[in-house]
Write a structure and sequence with these properties.
This protein is an all-alpha fold and 184 residues long. The protein contains six helices and no strands. The protein is elongated and about 95 Å long. 17% of the residues are buried.
Length: 184
């Protein structure tokens, strides 16, 4: 079950702050962190992911629609899993296992919030359901006003106000929005 939109927005804000904090840690401690999680040869990638985490966190905190930023976080989580999996040779180290579990848990949070915020908001149903007050659905009413329409006499343009034709006489027609008949 998905959380409410309000809960998902709160989760997105929390993930934004977490991203900024994690990004700073990844930037400042890239060498020891990459060794601890079992990927010492990927120190540059850990630093780059730190910059990415900071950018994603700022995006989450500064936008009205956090869903695209949550999907970006999820893509980053997939990259993190791939990076950590590349460091597994034989028996996994404790640091790698803990990091994989943490990334997987965060990916789940990102997915839940992104799915909820990526859906259109639901509207409350009134006692009358979704009725709009029109007698037919929109696809059945489309064009109905144009069939056999003739403007009532009180809505027609008076002859004195009709545009002049090329021959100096008032043009025929007169309903607003209708063109005068072609004289030729």
């Amino acid at each position: 079950m998905l959380p409410s939109r309000h809960q998902a927005r709160s989760l997105a804000r929390g993930l934004g702050w977490f991203s900024i904090g994690l990004g700073v840690v990844e930037l400042l401690t890239a060498r020891p962190l990459s060794r601890a999680v079992g990927v010492p040869s990927r120190r540059g990638l850990v630093s780059a992911r730190g910059l990415s985490e900071i950018a994603t966190g700022v995006g989450l905190l500064s936008t009205r629609d956090p869903a695209p930023w949550l999907w970006a976080r999820l893509a980053g989580d997939a990259l993190d899993v791939a990076t950590l999996a590349s460091g597994i040779h034989g028996k996994p180290r404790l640091g790698t296992t803990v990091a994989l579990a943490a990334v997987t848990g965060l990916a789940l949070l990102d997915l839940v919030a992104a799915r909820r915020l990526g859906q259109p908001p639901t509207r409350a149903v009134s006692a009358q359901g979704w009725r709009s007050g029109f007698p037919l659905p929109a696809h059945e009413m489309r064009g109905a006003a144009l069939e056999g329409f003739s403007a009532p006499a009180d809505l027609r343009t008076p002859e004195a106000l009709r545009p002049w034709g090329a021959d100096g006489t008032a043009a025929q027609g007169g309903a607003r929005g209708t063109a005068p008949p072609d004289p030729g």
